[in-house]
Amino acid sequence: MELSKDELIRYSRHLLLSEMGVEGQKKLKSASVLVVGLGGLGSPVAMYLAAAGIGKLGLVDFDTVDMTNLQRQTIHGTSDVGRSKNQSAFEKLTEINPEIKIERYDEALTSKNAMQIIEKYDIVADGTDNFETRYLVNDACVLLGKPNVYGSVYRFEGQASVFGAANGPCYRCLYPNPPEPGAVPSCEEAGVLGVLPGTIGLIQATEVIKLILGNGSPLIGRLLLYNALDMRFTEIKLKANPDCPVCGNHRTIKELIDYEVFCGISKGGESKHENVKDEISVAEFSRLLKLDDDFFLLDVREPFEYDICNIPKAVLVPAGRVKNNLSKIPTNKKIVVVCHHGGRSRKIVDYLTNEGFQNVFNLEGGMDRYAQEIDADMERY
Ligand code: ZN
């Protein structure tokens, strides 16, 4: 694999590094990296790996760009809202570096396609934002013997490591079991500092390049923790767990499993609570509103969310303040609790029920599903 004159110019700052040089740059050109998820982490990972001259990048995403992505998913721009993330990313990456090859997978990574897709690549950079896909990527990488450069972000904190390397631990060694569904709020629920995935994604991109070069000390067996508020990095040593079901001595996971079941999520993508009797569907809820039924509607979102869209009848008490405002909630009426997607309100329903309130219901799918299925004029975010 030779470098053209254009490439010698484009990568000249790399070629000056004795640790990289022409040989190192040729290694990058020969390498292939799969970026799973073109969101907050995938944006910097893909942009910098493209710029660095990775010969082949694979992009996996099935989502479309929405306005709330732009605060951190910098591979996409305002004019991309409503377009496919993969298409938007493909165009941006081609503009950054037309010398590289890009393959698109405009689909969700699943137990059915993960092995076939991942086996075509040398390294995987995991930019997923959910536990099902994270365990899926981990297991597929372990089964195929591919390094899995991991990153994740939450509010002001992030972590990164390299899993699935020879003799190194995997994600399951660190977290054998997923959290209960809803126990760890998503970025959508908990928020995230926009620059945070930039920092973590660039750590992932750096590790990918080091793995390809075979230079430096990679994050194998090391979990790097970053707190943006304190501006502090800490590190935890990780060991491969001999009892790990996928990489240990007595392996029980020898092929990909059903990750939605493993993570406690049913087929429809709904939580375990789907059939619990204190959930109310948006259709039933809309019927109650039309009947002008005398019920108490408690909106536990934040004030700025209420300003984006609301149901006039609702009384706003953000989830964090419910405890100190119990006197605002009537004890003699049916209560319906709403939030954006039904996660925060679910916890408040459980809390109120524990506090002795009766007749408390959670609006399944929250305001978002209500806007989607019932009120098309309502602003979504
Ligand atoms: Zn393991």
Number of helices: 15
Q: Total number of β-strand segments? A: 13
Helix fraction, binned, reads: 25-40%
Bound molecules: zinc ion
Termini gap: 47 Å
Structural class per helix/strand content? alpha/beta
How would you describe what is shown here?
There is one protein chain. This protein is an alpha/beta fold. The chain has two domains: 31-262, NAD(P)-binding Rossmann-like Domain (Rossmann fold, 3-Layer(aba) Sandwich), CATH 3.40.50; 276-373, Oxidized Rhodanese, domain 1 (3-Layer(aba) Sandwich). The protein contains 15 helices and 13 strands. It has helices at residues 5-10, 12-15, 21-30, 42-52, 85-96, 114-118, 131-144, 171-174, 187-190, 196-213, 259-262, 282-291, 303-308, 343-354, 366-373; strands spanning 32-36, 56-60, 101-105, 123-126, 148-154, 157-163, 222-227, 232-237, 279-280, 295-299, 315-316, 334-338, 360-363. The chain has an eight-stranded mixed sheet, sandwiched between helices. It has a five-stranded parallel sheet with strand order 9-13-12-10-11. A hairpin with a 4-residue loop joins β7 (222-227) and β8. α4 packs parallel to α5 and α4 (42-52) crosses α10 (196-213). The longest helix is centred in the middle third of the chain and has 18 residues, at 196-213. It starts with a helix and ends in an 8-residue tail after the last helix. The structure holds zinc ion. Zinc ion binds at residues 169-170, 172-173, 240-241, 244, 246-247.
